[in-house]
Design brief:
mainly alpha, DNA polymerase, domain 1, 2 domains, 13 helices, about 0% strand
Length: about 270
Amino acid sequence: MSVDYPYQDAFDRLLDQRDMATATHDEYTATLKDFFHYLENFNPTYQRTHQVNQLQTTDVQQYLSMLVTARQIKNQTYNKILSHLNVYFKFLFSHQWTPYLPTLDLKSKPKQPAQPINYQWVDNLETFLRDERLHVYTRLTLLLIAQGYPEQAFLKPGMTAQLQPTNWSPAARQFLKRFQAFIMPLQQRFQCPDWFLKQRAAADPHLTLPGLHKYLRPDEAIIGFSLSPTVLYQGYLINYLRRNPQKTDQEVIAALHLPPDSIDYYRRLAQRAD
């Protein structure tokens, strides 16, 4: 099993002892993996030493500031990520693996009022697919989410082989023909059949979620709404429920692959949508 961040095995055991849901455990892993990936690429101190016990409050602040400015995360997400980091560094401190708590002086942000989720973008998908101002990865993201795939699915290596675009709309198939001109050289360079690939040489050619955000963020000014894959997927789910009010919970769960305990939440969102 690969190690994604320092002391992962020991920290995993702590999380297991807390008897938390698998999804919550995975969120901790994703936060810490992303945090240390950021340090390895953008933090000179960590790049030199790779020593977690050298990290200061400013190092954590820089990461959180990047999340706010570059990825435009909401306060709720900010607070969750800060909580994950705080639990992790308290764990290291308790074992004397770091001499101080770099998160000690960092404060959570106030709760923001809930913003309405844009579900109407799905109905305008064909227009977006034809919009050459949008990067092809932006349009591909919209297309795949409108087919019911969250980002965890469509960024997963090997996912392309599982898709069945012959069943998609004519507009979707037309876009994919144009997309092939973009992606084929990258597929040949990396000897990889997947669709989300980096444009520069890399040991792992697959585009990460932070890498995808670099294409999505500039296009938000063009398209006029958030291109966060998570928010887009929520909009897709609400759109589906509004279009299929007659379907039973069991039918919706089967069609959307939703966990049973989330169906009521999305039905309420669909009912409140304008």
